[in-house]
Amino acid sequence: MSKPDGPLSPKEADTLMTYVLDHYMKHYDAVLRKLGHAKSATRQSISDIHDENKAPSGGDYNELKEIQAYEGMWQKVIDLFACSGVSEDELQKIEIILNGLPHIIDKYYKVLVQQDEILQALIEELGAEKYQNAIARTKKIQSVPDLMSGLDPSEYDLGHVHKHAFMFKVPASK
């Protein structure tokens, strides 16, 4: 086995790549499942608002417009998932959005996420030490100049070119 800071053997490189790719695929699946739950929770919230509007006291139409905007956003994100690749950074950005849902959606979303046994298993697997070590080692390897070309990691950073590649306007909250 090579030193943690030294070059990888071909077998170690293959194992490292396998873990990092497996982690990405599980993270991708987890986020896609969470998006489906967010969409379902949004539909339930819209149904609740419609039911409240039928009540004698009426309801809040601004709240309904906000929730409907989320519903449209979920569909766009899910469609992009189906049509194109999503980077690990973009998966994390989507999860930040999912962690900031308005309360009316979030109350249903949390229940759906907790009840999804497959998602719960994925979330547990994502925290496995083998994945965390592989990701940390990969980041360390990618932080130094390339051994074959001598190029600095900044040469490979295309973030400035695709700065807005996966940007969605989150509906404004009250």
Write out key terms for the chains shown:
174 residues, mainly alpha, 7 helices, elongated
Question: DSSP helix count?
Answer: 7
Gross geometry: elongated
- The number of distinct β-strands equals 0
Helix- and strand-based class? Answer: mainly alpha
The biggest sheet amounts to:
none
Series of H and E elements: HHHHHHH
Mean pLDDT: 83
Cα-atom radius of gyration: 21 Å
Please estimate the helix content.
Answer: 55-70%
Strand content: under 5%
Which consecutive residue ranges, at least 5 long each, have pLDDT under 50?
Answer: none
Ends apart, CA distance between termini: 56 Å
Brief rundown of the structure:
With 174 residues, the protein is an all-alpha fold. The protein has helices at 10-54, 61-83, 88-98, 103-115, 117-126, 129-142, 153-156.
Structure write-up:
The chain is 69% helix and 0% strand. The model has no long low-confidence stretch (mean pLDDT 83). It is elongated. It is mainly α and 174 residues long. The chain has 7 helices and no strands. Helix 1 packs across helix 4, helix 1 packs antiparallel against helix 5 and helix 1 packs across helix 6.
Give a topology summary:
Layout: H1 10-54, H2 61-83, H3 88-98, H4 103-115, H5 117-126, H6 129-142, H7 153-156
Helix pairs in contact: 1-2, 1-3, 1-4, 1-5, 1-6
